[in-house]
Amino acid sequence: MSRLFSTRPGDDGLPGPERRLAVMALILGTTMAVVDTTMVNLALPAIAADLRVPAAEAVWVTNLFQVTCAAFLLVFAALSELVGRRRLYAAGLALFAVAALGSALSRSLETLLAFRALQGVAAAATLSIGPSLYRAIFPSRLLGSALGLSSLVVATGYAAGPALGGTLLSVASWPWLFALPVPLGAGAVILAWRALPREPRRSGGFDGWGALCAMAALASLFLALDGAGRAAGGGGWAWLAVALVAGAAFIARQRRAAYPLLPLSLFRERRFSLAVAAQGLAFVGQGLAFVALSFLYQREMGFTPLETAWLFTPWPLTIMVAGPLAGRLADRLNPSLLSSAGLVLLMAGLASLARLEAEAGVIDGLWRTALCGLGFGLFQPPNNRELMASVPAERSASASGVMSTTRTMGQSLGVALVGAGLAAGAPVQLTLWAGVAATALSLLASLARVPLAGEALRARRRAAAERVQ
């Protein structure tokens, strides 16, 4: 860990001592958003009972957060170039804490949903630019290690969220889940304002029409996927039509806008495009597996919800181990080879879970889930390094927004595939095979950029040697 904060002559990014405080601000912001998502899902039955609303309506406490977060990711990534990433990140943390307090004090579903929507907007402000801030904070030679640390933080949040939420709900009522981020958010705002790098802001305008088209397209696509996952009938198709029309309008707008919200020229860089494709498809597999395994363990194998939660635990735990190591190796080896090896392991894990029999025991489920986590942990940091490092530094915010959007939509598509499969009467094991297929496509995208990543690695080594001379 001390290597992350070492300084060498010619390093870009922040000096070592300043790096520590800046990273702590990012860790707090990411942890609040991730833990919030995993905790609130556990509280939905209690919220429905306390506010006297149907369970189907209480689900919108989670859904509305996700819709607004997805809709604003690209918008905030572009806006950060105008207002500055430090200002936007600190403002997002402050809004998240205020909205969390409002959620805790809500005594009706309508009020709670309004504050949850605000929390989603706030989460988008931080998540959209988080990866790009790692690039600004750390020197280029440590970018993979830095993104490995980011994967460690996310995995820790996913692992700790359910346990923390369950513990709180056992001793207190659901509003305390929302109150928890308030003091953390206040401290994170102060830290972010003091420690994050100060940058020159871009001059020029903002693509307002592009922002509206992006929000309409992403929110509609999320609702369409949610409708498909719940077999909502014609409503899902209507939202999909809106998403396609808004998406086409967004692309047309970006081609002629003076200051495009998302420069389409980014996708001409093959390393970037292939990394985006690999990430989206891998997150389809992960999102699909998370939902499918809940049904497999409980409905097919007869485990209790608590036992199912423990059977999930190896996935984030192995990411916590493999992620930082993979990130560190990605600074020295070909990142695409590393991420491809991770996808092979993820495919093997998903295939072994799809073949799991109803009579299998706990150990059979644990090692298969651990294999999936190991593969995903080996895949993600090297792939993120390729995605971020393949574009110019001044486009880091745009690349970060694409990364966050692709991750969110990939997970949502995975969930929708499980829901559609179960609604059609397909066995849950078949949906896991769909995850294997999505991961196989991700592997093809990852392998296609191996030569390109190798050339970039050799260029990086030559530049490092020139600095030493």
UniProtKB/TrEMBL annotation:
<feature type="transmembrane region" description="Helical">
    <location>
        <begin position="432"/>
        <end position="452"/>
    </location>
</feature>
<keyword id="KW-0812">Transmembrane</keyword>
<keyword id="KW-0472">Membrane</keyword>
<feature type="transmembrane region" description="Helical">
    <location>
        <begin position="173"/>
        <end position="196"/>
    </location>
</feature>
<dbReference type="InterPro" id="IPR011701">
    <property type="entry name" value="MFS"/>
</dbReference>
<feature type="transmembrane region" description="Helical">
    <location>
        <begin position="142"/>
        <end position="161"/>
    </location>
</feature>
<feature type="transmembrane region" description="Helical">
    <location>
        <begin position="60"/>
        <end position="79"/>
    </location>
</feature>
<feature type="transmembrane region" description="Helical">
    <location>
        <begin position="309"/>
        <end position="330"/>
    </location>
</feature>
<feature type="domain" description="Major facilitator superfamily (MFS) profile">
    <location>
        <begin position="22"/>
        <end position="454"/>
    </location>
</feature>
<feature type="transmembrane region" description="Helical">
    <location>
        <begin position="88"/>
        <end position="106"/>
    </location>
</feature>
<feature type="transmembrane region" description="Helical">
    <location>
        <begin position="21"/>
        <end position="48"/>
    </location>
</feature>
<dbReference type="InterPro" id="IPR020846">
    <property type="entry name" value="MFS_dom"/>
</dbReference>
<keyword id="KW-1133">Transmembrane helix</keyword>
<feature type="transmembrane region" description="Helical">
    <location>
        <begin position="337"/>
        <end position="354"/>
    </location>
</feature>
<feature type="transmembrane region" description="Helical">
    <location>
        <begin position="231"/>
        <end position="252"/>
    </location>
</feature>
<feature type="transmembrane region" description="Helical">
    <location>
        <begin position="208"/>
        <end position="225"/>
    </location>
</feature>
<protein>
    <submittedName>
        <fullName>MFS transporter</fullName>
    </submittedName>
</protein>
<feature type="transmembrane region" description="Helical">
    <location>
        <begin position="272"/>
        <end position="297"/>
    </location>
</feature>
<dbReference type="Pfam" id="PF07690">
    <property type="entry name" value="MFS_1"/>
</dbReference>
<keyword id="KW-0813">Transport</keyword>
<dbReference type="InterPro" id="IPR036259">
    <property type="entry name" value="MFS_trans_sf"/>
</dbReference>
<feature type="transmembrane region" description="Helical">
    <location>
        <begin position="112"/>
        <end position="130"/>
    </location>
</feature>
